[in-house]
Amino acid sequence: MIMYFKITTIGSYALEILNSVPEGVIHSVYRKTINIQFGDYLLALQADLSPVSPVSLITELDAASMETLPVSPGLKVKVSSGILSIYGTISVIKFNFLEADLFESRLISKSPQLLRDTLKSVLDHCAAGGFSTIFAPCCVKDQENNLGAELATTAAKNHLKACSTYMQRADYEKASEELVSLIGLGVGLTPSGDDFLCGVLAGLILTGNSDQRFTSILRKMIRPNLNNTNDISRTFLQCALLSHFSKPIKDLVFPASAEDIHASFGAVGHSSGFDSLCGIFYVYTLILN
To answer: What Cα–Cα distance (Å) separates residue 4 from each residue in 26, 45, 57, 83, 94?
Structure first.
């Protein structure tokens, strides 16, 4: 049996991978996401209306339909002539991406507006837990009864305080070491520390500091530590090192209202979106202090 579906939106980073690595394997399957390993890269087949990231392959299927697909880890995947095919034991599932809308995930422009106050307003009302409790402690949610999250937040506070101190001394190596210590820190599918660090890398671009010495040192130090986290989180850090980010972050180049920013980042994971927003906000505090 052959099943045919369409990919409606594809990240530019994901398209590069599909055009260069013709074979892969199903890495993992979640409720509305199928992660596919292509060599050293992970891409994500996602349900319609899912948040768009650099690795996204957004399909026409809703979440319920995605759950019914006969897919499991280990199945072979092949890409040929604009078709991604998953080979199961009793069926082949084909996804056509030739006519998919392209999401350009590379972030190269700084924001023309001063975002610091707007981002602080968003974080003050997010109530998402994660690292947002560091920057808006009045908005604690689920973290109160989660010892692992509390310990991660305490450790993160110490690293960020030390990083800020080293930045004031222009000791960029030590400052970078503190931020790199966040890799793998936290709980969840993508640990908060990793999401935060992705936000930091985005913030350095949005503030016009992508070519500064600190940014270069930080990027250099992150690379050899990528194995300190899981495969999915590592993928997003790899994307961030190449300046590829999710749509909510890309939209900050021309930001809308605090309410719209809150909605777009709030749609990304349990706290992942707001954790990355914290990283962006933290850069603004470093640059403007």
So the answer is: 18, 14, 15, 10, 5
**Confidence grade of residue 146 (pLDDT, cut at 50, 70, 90):** low
The CA distance from 190 to 95, in Å, is 26
φ and ψ of 247, to 5 deg: -60, -45
Band of pLDDT at residue 289, cut at 50, 70 and 90: low
Q: Coil, strand, or helix at residue 114? A: coil
Is a pLDDT exceeding 90 seen at residue 134?
no
pLDDT band per the 50, 70, 90 thresholds, residue 138: low
Rounded CA-CA distance 77/74 in Å is 9
pLDDT reading at 64 higher than 90: yes
Helices (H), the chain: 12-18, 63-68, 116-124, 132-135, 147-168, 172-180, 192-206, 213-222, 231-241, 247-250, 258-266, 272-288
Nearest partner of 57 among 19, 98, 99, 8, judged by Cα: 8
Residue 284 DSSP SS3:
helix
CB 47 within 8 A of CB 61: yes
Structure tokens of 119?
Answer: 């981002």
CA 109/CA 18 separation, integer angstroms: 26
Predicted TM-score of the model (pTM): 0.93
DSSP 59-97: ES--HHHHHHS---TT-EEEEETTEEEEE-SS-EEEEE-
Angle between the 172-180 and 147-168 helix axes, to the nearest 10 degrees? 170
Burial code (b: 16+ CB inside 10 Å, e: under 16) for 169-196 equals eeebeebbbbbbbbbbbbbbebbbbbbb
Q: Are 139 and 183 in contact (CB under 8 A)?
A: no
